[in-house]
From TrEMBL:
Cross-referenced SUPFAM superfamilies: FAD-linked reductases, C-terminal domain, FAD/NAD(P)-binding domain
Record key words, sorted: Cytoplasm, GTPase activation
Residue ranges of domain RAE1/2 in the record: 395-517
Cellular component aspect of the GO annotation: cytosol; nucleus; Rab-protein geranylgeranyltransferase complex
Gene that this sequence comes from: chm
Similarity-based family: Belongs to the Rab GDI family.
Function: Substrate-binding subunit (component A) of the Rab geranylgeranyltransferase (GGTase) complex. Binds unprenylated Rab proteins and presents the substrate peptide to the catalytic component B. The component A is thought to be regenerated by transferring its prenylated Rab back to the donor membrane.
Organism: Dicentrarchus labrax (European seabass)
Gene Ontology biological process terms from the UniProt entry: intracellular protein transport; small GTPase-mediated signal transduction; vesicle-mediated transport
Stored InterPro entries: FAD/NAD-bd_sf, GDP_dissociation_inhibitor, Rab_escort, RAE1_2_domI_C
Gene3D superfamilies to which the protein is assigned, alphabetical: FAD/NAD(P)-binding domain, Guanine Nucleotide Dissociation Inhibitor, domain 1, Guanine Nucleotide Dissociation Inhibitor, domain 2
Amino acid composition bias (Acidic residues), ranges on this chain: 105-120, 127-141, 565-625
Protein name (Swiss-Prot/TrEMBL): Rab proteins geranylgeranyltransferase component A
Length: 625
């Protein structure tokens, strides 16, 4: 029988990102933490699965679970105590699962190039040979005149991946239930750096930002280098875009005059064309046409602040999937003494009637565990005890395994963020993330594609029209050049942004965490974790940096005298001074690089002005003629 510690400072039920971050923060400052979860895997609705693991997860949600009757634990209660029963259902947050497989079940046998010869005994008519020669000559002529002929030539010989292969290579997949990216200057990245948790994971840059427009996928120029290298924008558009982005860095009175008015109206009044309006609205600010100007500008500034820190786009993605992030914080919690129990559920909360505080919890085995604070996922709490700002909303999710990139390029290792505006009136805007095999989320030769939007109907109803337009499926029409969908999953997930932080009908030392929200970043989860920490330990630092292994001094090894300690202190002071000088040197070098970049930018602007001047002169000459 499992015996747990008799007194726990902070007890957690479920292991979503919010709970994992808060648990790591408490454990780091010396609190005793117990983390239990009824699931058999870490991270809850933030988890990543192998392909076979995902199939098991789908099967579990398809099975109709019998509602477990609440057990009578009255014998474990003391005088003046009452029990609040927790929910046992784990399926309320996931619904409308639909799975489709568009590839063959078994491996297709490779067809030999001389099949016709074998069938006819190796003989051919002379007329057939002449016809084949003419066809080969025509193919060669097409290859010489068509730039993408080499790509198309390889397509027929490409063996289609079967469902059996997906199962066989299933461990190469790491499929996230949630689709998000990490802003390079967002709260999650800052916390990973501050706490030293970043050393537990690896990250890749999102290499490009794409948008879907007029039934075509286009690359969005977002950095300065992209803008000047773009062939989609004219010289005048490039200059207008750079001027607008520069003006967005700081808030002005002119911008405040548009507060409460649509962001699209603000863009139109800046004399920006349709191209620039589309890029700025849907791919840089990532807002809708009705979004207020102040929100659109805030999103644009955040996007611009994140550019250039780690690459030409503002985003990072963790290798092996987003499910690694909660596990990294769980690892930090365990390093500092946190205890983890999977497949172990909490049945109820023991409440003192006089103080309205949680004194203990009772687990599914009838064990009473005393705790000072209890942090719980909203799925455990009955609806009549939760306070929500809006009626429950859902996210529509789709996960695709495809055989090619949505926008082929010279490199087959692109990580792409794709924005898809509403394809029709009443349809939601869709955010799409396409991952290549170098992210360790799919097998070589395939791409893993995540689609997310606010639910209007079921996930299939919301997202299948986008899938059939942008990929090749049995329902697609005239999509021969698009990548094929091998396997796909649709499901709806509860949007956690509607949960209120306070005001729940619960004891004062019970804290409720929401599930994933529909935003692209992780701001809500980190904000919730920090808020819970500050309520419990307002005087402590949130997630202070963990020491490096080489900096840890063990008691048995600390035999040096006080004189030796003073020498070590002087040595450390000298090292600190050297590090300070190096930092100042690096800052000067960065300033020098910035000045050089500004100089280059001014030169480029000068060239653009000269080109504009030439264009205007040509227009004047044409007008005079």
């Amino acid at each position: 029988m499992l015996t747990l510690a008799p007194l726990i400072h902070c007890l957690y039920a479920a292991e979503s990102l919010t709970e994992s971050v808060a648990a790591a923060a408490f454990s780091r400052v010396g609190q005793r933490v117990l983390h239990v979860d009824r699931r058999s895997y870490y991270a809850g609705n933030w988890a990543s699965f192998t392909f076979s693991g995902l199939l098991t997860w789908i099967q579990q949600h398809h099975v109709t679970l019998l509602i477990k009757e609440a057990q009578d634990w009255s014998s474990l209660l003391e005088e003046g105590e009452e029990l609040i029963h927790l929910s046992h259902s784990d399926c309320a947050s996931i619904r409308n699962l639909q799975v489709f497989c568009f590839t063959s079940e078994e491996d297709e046998e490779e067809e030999a190039p001389n099949t016709t010869e074998e069938e006819t005994g190796g003989t051919k008519e002379t007329g057939e040979e002449e016809e084949e020669v003419r066809e080969e000559e025509e193919v060669r002529e097409e290859e010489q005149t068509t730039p993408s002929a080499a790509l198309r030539q390889s397509e027929p010989t490409k063996k289609k991946i079967s469902y059996a292969q997906l199962l066989k290579e299933g461990r190469r997949f790491n499929i996230d239930l949630v689709s998000k990216l990490m802003y390079s200057r967002g709260s999650l990245v800052d916390l990973l750096i501050k706490s030293n948790v970043s050393r537990y994971a690896e990250f890749k840059n999102v290499t490009r930002i794409l948008t879907y427009r007029d039934r075509q996928v286009e690359q969005v120029p977002c950095s300065r280098a992209d803008v000047f290298a773009s062939r989609q924008l004219s010289v005048v558009e490039k200059r207008k875009l750079m001027r607008f982005l520069t003006s967005c860095v700081e808030e002005t009175e002119e911008q405040r005059a548009y507060n409460g008015r649509p962001y699209l109206e603000f863009l139109r009044d800046r004399q920006l064309g349709d191209n620039l309006q589309h890029f700025l609205l849907h791919s840089i600010a990532m807002v809708t046409e009705d979004t207020p100007t102040e929100e659109g500008l805030a999103s644009t500034r955040h996007f611009l602040r994140c550019l250039g820190r780690y690459g030409n786009t503002p985003f990072l993605f963790p290798v092996y999937g987003l499910g690694e992030i909660p596990q990294c914080f769980c690892r930090m919690c365990a390093v500092f003494g946190g205890i983890y129990c999977l497949r172990h559920s909490v049945d109820g909360v023991v409440v003192d009637r006089d103080s309205n505080r949680c004194k203990a919890v009772i687990d599914s085995r009838g064990q009473r565990i005393t705790c000072s604070h209890f942090v719980v996922e909203e799925g455990y709490v009955a609806a009549d005890r939760k306070r929500v700002a809006t009626p429950t909303r859902f996210l529509s999710r789709a996960v695709l395994i495809t055989d090619g990139s949505i926008l082929p390029s010279d490199s087959d290792q692109q990580v792409s963020m794709v924005t898809v505006p509403p394809i029709a009136a009443g349809c939601p805007a869709v955010k799409m993330v396409e991952l290549c095999s170098s992210t360790m989320t799919c097998m070589p030769g395939t791409y893993l594609v995540h689609l997310t939007c606010q639910s209007v109907g079921s996930a299939y109803e919301d997202l299948s029209p986008v899938v059939t337009r942008m990929f090749r499926t049995p329902e697609s029409h005239d999509q021969e050049t698009c990548p094929s969908v091998l396997w796909c999953l649709y499901f709806n997930m509860t949007d956690g942004s509607g949960l209120e932080a306070e005001g729940h009908n619960l004891p004062s030392n019970v804290y409720v965490c929401s599930g994933p929200d529909g935003d692209l970043g992780h701001e809500l989860a980190i904000r919730q974790a920090e808020s819970i920490f500050q309520k419990i330990l307002p005087e402590e630092d949130f997630c202070p940096p963990a020491p490096n292994p080489e900096d840890i001094i063990y008691d048995g090894d600390n035999t040096s005298s006080s004189a030796g300690g003073e020498e070590e202190k002087e040595e450390n002071d000298g090292v600190a001074e050297e590090e300070k000088q190096e930092e100042e040197k690096e800052m000067l070098e960065e300033e020098k690089e910035m000045l050089e970049e500004e100089k280059e930018m001014l030169e480029e602007e000068k060239e653009m002005l000269e080109e504009e001047k030439e264009v205007l002169e040509e227009q004047n000459l044409q007008t005079e003629e």
